[in-house]
Amino acid sequence: MAQAIERTMGNRPFLRDARERLAALCFDHFEVIPQSPTIGAEVRGLSLAEPLRDDVLKALRTALVEFKVLFFRDQEIDVRAQSRFASRFGELERHPFLPSNTEHAHVIRFAKDEQTVGYENIWHSDVSWRQRPSLGSVLRAIEVPPVGGDTLWCDMEAAYEGLSDDVKDTLAGRTAVHDFAYSFGRMLPPDELERRRAEFPPAEHPIFRTHPESGRRCIYVNRVFTHHVTDMSEDESDAVLELLYAQAHVPEYHFRLRWSPGTVAFWDNRSTQHYAVNDYWPMKRVMERVTVIGDRPR
Fold first, then answer.
1. Residue 289 known to be catalytic
2. 241 is a domain residue
3. Strand partners, 208
4. Per-residue pLDDT tens over the stretch 116-147
């Protein structure tokens, strides 16, 4: 299943079609500024401090599915407004392994400094080890370093379309096992790990997921949480996963966000992976994240 070298030329048919699709979108309630040909857009003209009307939320949902990552600058909001906004898109998750905001169990606080170093600098999709992984996440910047600490996202729909037909056909219908034990589980003593494995058993998801709203396919494996391909030898599984993991490293599929205090990003975990650049030590970086529960991948 070797990749053809023309992949480095870019997936031209997908790029053309995506440009045309995104250019045809029209939003009456806010302005959308694309940040790359297929992924990432700044939303202007909205304040998240107050509840948004249903028609505005419907339009935002369309923008999220199509651009995959939305961000809003200069949002003077607190954690309550952030949570209210996220909850309009679905039930909020309580993460069993990451530290929460002390007053809000569904809010994860990422506070990094000289003593607490960031470790999210690996391509991943949040909580893919759940039976019902995340629909999306809303991340708010509270304090950021003067330089560094950016976040990158990868368009996994573009990554899928960039695969050869041979790879797509060979892996169609295949599933892979996602398991928290090889990441968060490493911090747990054996008895606690066993208890947590019973509570959160490994999840089996399609390698190529179909987005429930757009109907488009994407690669749905990631280096942090995917353990093996079902019904394959270890060597074959490792080779397949390495091939698919590598697609997240292609710059043509990326969008990079430079944070500032008050920036809020909302991304679709069903069609993206992300990478928090860990280049700001010993500076301080404080963020809070709220995650929306999604559906079972199909």
1. yes
2. yes
3. 219
4. 888 889 999 999 999 999 999 999 999 999 99
